[in-house]
Design brief:
The complex is a heterodimer of chains A (about 120) and B (about 110). Chain A has about 120 residues and is mainly β. Chain A has no helices and 11 strands. In chain A, a hairpin with a 2-residue loop joins β5 and β6. Chain B has about 110 residues and is mainly β. Chain B has no helices and 11 strands. The chains are: A mainly beta (about 120), B mainly beta (about 110).
Chain lengths: ~120, ~110
C-alpha cells in the first residue's frame, strides 16, 4: 500500500529537549516536504527536498532542521523545541520534482506539544 | 493580506444540500489550483486538480476557477454525511525555478442526516 508514514503520531515534550519526527514514503517519490498546521493559519511549509541531499527552506523554517540522506526518508529535527512549535506536523511527498503540480501524498500527522 | 483567503466556517448543511466552498487569492501568477479534503485526525488528500479557468467535474464534485476574478470554488452536489471534513484550497506557481505552493486555512463542513 502506497503511504507516507510518520512517527511519533503524538508527542509531549519539554522546552529544549531535542526531538526527531521521522517520515518515510514507499512510493519512490523524489519530492518530500514538511508542513505545520495551526488553527486559522492552514498548512505552512517548513522545509522541502527535491531529491537526496537537496533541501531548501519553506516559509517557516526557523527552529527546524531536516536531512535527506536516502530517498525514502525525510526526518524533521527540532534541536531545542519551544512552546511556539506546538503544532500538528505533516510530512508529504510527490512524484513531481516541483511538488505542487503533482499530487501531494500526506502522512497522518504528528501532534507535538512542547511544555 | 494573505495570499489565499478561505472562510473557515464551520458550514453546517442538511444531507442532500448543494455545498459551495470558496477561496480568493491575490497573486495572479498562480497557475494550478487544487482542493484537498481532510478528515478529522487524518492527513489531507487530493480531491480536485485544475489548471485553467472554467469548470471540472468529478462525480458529485465540481471545481471552478475564475482567474480574472482570482476566485476558485468547489461545489458538492447531493452532499452526504461522509463529506463532513475540512476542505483546503491550494494554489501553485512555478516560474523560473521558483516553486511555491500555498494552502488556504480550510473550511470545516458538517453534513447532518
Amino acid at each position: 500500500e502506497a503511504q507516507v508514514t510518520q512517527n511519533p503520531r503524538y508527542l509531549i515534550t519539554v522546552t529544549g529537549k531535542k526531538l526527531t519526527v521521522t517520515c518515510s514514503q514507499n512510493m519512490n517519490h523524489e519530492y518530500m516536504s514538511w508542513y505545520r498546521q495551526d488553527p486559522g493559519l492552514g498548512l505552512r511549509q517548513i522545509y522541502y527536498s527535491m531529491n537526496v541531499e537537496v533541501t531548501d527552506k519553506g516559509d517557516v523554517p526557523e527552529g527546524y532542521k531536516v536531512s535527506r540522506k536516502e530517498k525514502r526518508n525525510f526526518p524533521l529535527i527540532l534541536e531545542s523545541p519551544s512552546p511556539n512549535q506546538t503544532s500538528l506536523y505533516f510530512c508529504a511527498s510527490s512524484s513531481q520534482r516541483t511538488g505542487g503540480t503533482g499530487e501531494l501524498f500526506f502522512g497522518e500527522g504528528s501532534r507535538l506539544t512542547v511544555l | 493580506q494573505k495570499e489565499v483567503e478561505q472562510d473557515p466556517g464551520p458550514l453546517s448543511v442538511p444531507e442532500g444540500a448543494i455545498v459551495s466552498l470558496n477561496c480568493t487569492y491575490s497573486n495572479s501568477a498562480f497557475q494550478y489550483f487544487m482542493w484537498y479534503r481532510q478528515y478529522s485526525r487524518k492527513g489531507p488528500e487530493l480531491l480536485m486538480y485544475t489548471y485553467s479557468s472554467g469548470n471540472k467535474e468529478d462525480g458529485r464534485f465540481t471545481a471552478q476557477v475564475d482567474k480574472s476574478s482570482k476566485y476558485i470554488s468547489l461545489f458538492i452536489r447531493d452532499s452526504q454525511p461522509s463529506d463532513s471534513a475540512t476542505y483546503l484550497c491550494a494554489m501553485h506557481m512555478f516560474s523560473g525555478g521558483y516553486n511555491k505552493l500555498i494552502f488556504g486555512a480550510g473550511t470545516r463542513l458538517a453534513v447532518h442526516p
